[in-house]
Structure formats: structure tokens, C-alpha cells
Protein: Probable 5-dehydro-4-deoxyglucarate dehydratase
Amino acid sequence: MTSAPLAARLNNPSGPLFFPVTAYGPDGSVDLDTYRTHVRRGVEAGAAAVFACCGTGEFHALTPEEFERCVSAAVEAAEGRVPVVAGAGYGTALAVRYARLAEAAGADGLLAMPPYLVVAGQEGLLRHYREVAAATALPVVVYQRDNAVFTPETVVELARTDGIIGLKDGLGDLDLMQRVISAVRSEVPGDFLYFNGLPTAEQTQLAYRALGVTLYSSAVFCFAPELALAFHQALGNGDERTVEKLLDGFFRPFVELRDQGRGYAVALVKAGVRLRGLDVGEVRPPLHEPTEDHVKQLAELIERGYALLEEAK
Structure:
């Protein structure tokens, strides 16, 4: 166990960042025992950090009470071996509440997701994230996506804000990201973290890595940690052959399957966890389950991915 600050613990990740799904029992309630098992297996498989109750973890579907219990369970399962970062979102008042619940549950940091529903200007967005950062002692990573898209000037101000340590990009505008990185580097001395937060980030990580962004989310790690870890290691080692083999044989086909249904970035991942033998239940509405045929295709794809690993040995 280490007490090093979150930014230092994430600076040189030993593996992918793990975004566990939230487990539900047959009655639809949160299944904390299965959730602990899921988190513990991910940590033992080589995750560099656990991002609990975020997008893949159906933050949108959890009550505040469920959220606090899940974050606490993730902290318990991680046992200090890796940091646990919790989601926080909705309007400012609720985002502050979730931030404080996460702090009380023992989280090491926050992933601040976009405000709910409204499309705000840069001044309002900046005020929102500053209030979230001021609400607790937890370091904050701001998630850029959907209705929370920032100018380079706003990211400079975020980087100047006490408690805000990084930006996770779920937009995919590489020109904007280059301008953001350049502006922050020029205006704010010190390390500011950047994350590739696009769905199935492995598919775009070569491009982000060229910008100097080495941190990325890995939903695939939820159900195929060996594949995600092999890809992460190959990237770090400059093993282009393995990177290309996994991209062509697994990640690209997975993305194409994921794009067959709305919400599959979560629902298909959860189906993958069930296919690998851990019953984490179904997604909650408004998400829906993948079709039977899509689950069958996923099973075949997972089998193909592991065969690629065998070939690489």
C-alpha cells in the first residue's frame, strides 16, 4: 500500500486503467459481493487503477446510497494496492454530494463527468468544476465529452485550479487536444495528466500516444484482462507486431460489434463479463441488453482474441 498522491501513482501506469461494471443480483439490486470479486480480480490481473461507478459502472443508474456502498466496496477490494477513483456528476449540487460521498467511502480521487442536461458556456463549466474540486480534498480528473467541451483557455484555468490534476478526453478531436496540451504546457508549469477516454480506447491509443497521452480507459479489461494487458505492454515496449495483431484481430472487430447497438459500450462489456463466468447481472434501463446473436459474436471474438495471444507466445 502507498500513500503517494494520485497523480504520482498514475504517472507511470503498470497496466490499463480498470473501469469495472456494477454488479446486480437477480432482483436488480446491487450485488456487492460479486462487485468486490470483479474489482479484486481486476486488481490481481494487473490494473493500474480502479475507476469505480463511472461510465462503464453505470453511474447514471445508481442512487447516492448505492454509489457510496459500491465505492466503499471497491476500496475494500483494492486493499490499497492501486488507487480507486470514483465518478461524480449531474448538476453542481449533486456532483458535490457525490464527491463527498466518494471521499467518505475512502476513494483516492474523482472523475468529474459532464453536468446533466444543460449545455453551458465556458464560464459556467469552469465554475462547476471548481466548485466540485473545492468540495473535498480529493484530486479531480475532469471528463471532456458530450456537453462538456473545453477551449484550450478553459483547460488552462482548470489546470490552475487547486485539486484538478487532469483531463480525460472522450471527444476525440485530436487537433483540439494538441492545442490544449500545448496551451497548458506553456501557461501552467508542472505535470497535468491527460487520458484517452474514448470507448474502447485501445482503438485510438496509437494516435493519442503520438500526442504524449499514455493513460487510457480499458473497458475490455473488464472481461478480457489478458488481452488488454498484452496490448498495453506491447504499446509500452514498442512491439508494433503485437499491437497490430491485436488491433486487427480483436479490437477493431470488437468496436464494429459495439457500434451495432446504442449503449453497447456498457451492455456489451457487461455481457462479456458474464461470458467469462462472473454473473454481474444485466444493465439497468434506459440501457438494454445485447441481442442473442451479438452475444454469440462476442463470445467468438473473445475466443479469437485469446487465440491471438497464444500465437504470439
Notes: The longest helix spans residues 292-312.
